[in-house]
Structures are given as structure tokens and as C-alpha cells.
């Protein structure tokens, strides 16, 4: 028999896990539920880089999100006595003259303090005829390890249960939500389901702009680079000459099936800068829950305050989740105001008034 929780968190990906920690730290009784299949967090490379995209933009709200994420993951490491977060420089190689020129234009203003010109790359491993730059403050989260350590902690505190929920069975009550299959009635249930095409009677009107991503796992005999190297794709060390390479970004066929085109694209981009041969060990795909590019969507349901939502972490779940989980927890527990523009109610008010 499960203890009666005050909050039920549906989904233990990057969103649900960070939210559960934020609620537990406030001394709340929390039950996290996950069906333990699908979900894109376990495929994420967990990269946090201050400079992103072809235009070499400074990652949105980096100065605010990055320190929060570092402090958050370090605290969870201490609480779970596990190591899964690494602060290590990453390297970006210029793909063409335009990129290099853009770097030179931005180096002394927008990118000041975030980049250095020191590359320290081994010429027998990497082709870098146009050069590149290093990002000394890059970081990387080992997402599966973080999720597993968190799950073990939640379970040990009676705050985790494996369940595949169908919210259509739930009943809204005066005091909260009744989940008959588990005989629990939390005051608030928060949907952290990522890009899930399953039925959702309350938040189903939220429109995704989701993007599929494919990733290869490769063995590169003799390659001992310890930093993540970016050039069209990222090459991220996984230990023992094994690396992960990705990712594609496409809006067609939003499923988890790896494709021959995806593999060919990653391999060709990798060959553009890796001089040594590699062997493909694994190939996987997942769908990023993009709603509004760069920002999540969260908050209570406008008509049913016992239901809340935290989703839309897009391509940057590791960086965004700690800050916005804290923001939502403050709102749910202490009545803190939600930041303008993030509120899920904007997707729901329209549909409610129409029908
Ligand atoms: C190829 C690829 C590479 C990426 N690389 C990075 C990266 O380097 N850095 C980065 O920060 N981000 C990266 N991302 C993005 C990152 O993966 C997402 O931002 C993040 O995983 C979203 O987390 P989430 O918790 O919202 O969703 P999910 O991880 O999808 O979690 C949702 C969870 O809810 C569960 N669930 C859903 N419905 C139910 C139900 N009815 N009952 C029970 N459980 C349910 C699912 O099983 C799942 O566990 C990458 C994504 C992809 C696809």
C-alpha cells in the first residue's frame, strides 16, 4: 500500500526528476510514477555548452541557468553519494569560413569570458584546418546515472513507484485527484510526460513542435580525447574508446525508430573532422519535447488547479530542468508568481472558451 502523497509527479525524465527533488527539499510528501520505457532523457547526451548553433549564439539565459544547474547536480550527487556530473571544457571546430568570421566578430563581446582560442587537439585524430575554440565552462550530465541515482533515492524514501498510468481513469475531487489504480489521492498531480502521444484529457491541447534526434554509439580504437568535440555533430567520450555521436534534428516521422538516413548523416559529419576509423556499435532515436524553442511550459491547469504541467524542455533539458523545476515548486508550494510567457494556461484557456 502506497503512503498518501501530497504531490504525484507523472514521469521520471529530466523534468519530473528535478521537480521531485525541488518538492522533496521543501519537505513535501511526493510520489514519482514512471512506466520505465520510452522517454527521451535516457538518450540525451547531457551536454551543457555556453555557445550553440550555427550562429554561435550564447545559450539563452546561460548566466542564470548554468550556476543553478551546477549547484543542483552537485547537491544531488552529495545526497545520493554518486558521481554523474562533470565540468570539463568542450571544443568547437569551425565548419566553414562564415563560422570562423562570425566567431571573430563575437569573440570580444557576446562570447567574452565563455571561449578561448586554445584547442590542444591532437592532429593525428582530428582535422581542424579552420581552427576553432574551447569552451572552458562546458559541463556534462550522465543522464542515465543521474536518473538511476535519483530513482534509487526516491524509492528508498517511499517516493517512487513503477506504473503506466492512464489519466482518463482519474477523478478530480474536492481535495485533489483520485488515482483509482493506485488508491492514492494527491492534492496535486504534475504531468511531466515529455513528448507523449498517449491520451491526456487535460493538457492534450498543448501543441508540440517536437524534433526527432538520432544518436550513434561508436568505438574509435586509439582515440583518447576526453573533451566533447563539436563540428556539425558532437563526439562525446563514454570511456574505453567508446563515444556517442549525434544528434540529428528532424521534424518528420516523430517516432523512436533509427533510420538509415540519420545514420548516414551522422557518419558523414563525423568523418568531416575525425581522421581515424570508427565502428558503429549502436544506433538509437528519441523525440525532443519542444514546445516553445528554448523555454519550458509549466503551471497549473486554469480550471483544475489540482493538475499541473512541466514540459517542453526541448534540446536543453539538463540545463533548463533545475531552474524551472525550482520555479514551479515555488509556485505550487508557496504561491510564487510564474514567469510571464511560460504558463501552460495560454494553450488551455482558448480551447476551454471554445467548448
Ligand atoms: C538525441 C537527443 C539528444 C539530446 N541531447 C541533449 C543534450 O546533450 N543535453 C540536453 O540538455 N538535452 C538533450 N536532449 C534533450 C533532452 O533529452 C530533453 O530535454 C529531456 O529529456 C526532456 O525530459 P522530459 O522529462 O520532459 O521527458 P522524458 O525524458 O521523455 O520523460 C518523460 C517520462 O514520462 C514517462 N511517462 C509518460 N507518460 C507516462 C504515463 N502515462 N505513465 C507513466 N509514465 C509516463 C515516460 O516513460 C518518461 O520516462 C536530447 C534529446 C535527444 C532526443
UniProtKB/TrEMBL annotation:
<dbReference type="GO" id="GO:0005737">
    <property type="term" value="C:cytoplasm"/>
</dbReference>
<keyword id="KW-0560">Oxidoreductase</keyword>
<dbReference type="GO" id="GO:0016491">
    <property type="term" value="F:oxidoreductase activity"/>
</dbReference>
<feature type="domain" description="FAD dependent oxidoreductase">
    <location>
        <begin position="7"/>
        <end position="330"/>
    </location>
</feature>
<dbReference type="InterPro" id="IPR006076">
    <property type="entry name" value="FAD-dep_OxRdtase"/>
</dbReference>
<dbReference type="Pfam" id="PF01266">
    <property type="entry name" value="DAO"/>
</dbReference>
<keyword id="KW-0472">Membrane</keyword>
<keyword id="KW-1133">Transmembrane helix</keyword>
<feature type="transmembrane region" description="Helical">
    <location>
        <begin position="6"/>
        <end position="24"/>
    </location>
</feature>
<protein>
    <recommendedName>
        <fullName>FAD dependent oxidoreductase domain-containing protein</fullName>
    </recommendedName>
</protein>
<dbReference type="InterPro" id="IPR036188">
    <property type="entry name" value="FAD/NAD-bd_sf"/>
</dbReference>
<keyword id="KW-0812">Transmembrane</keyword>
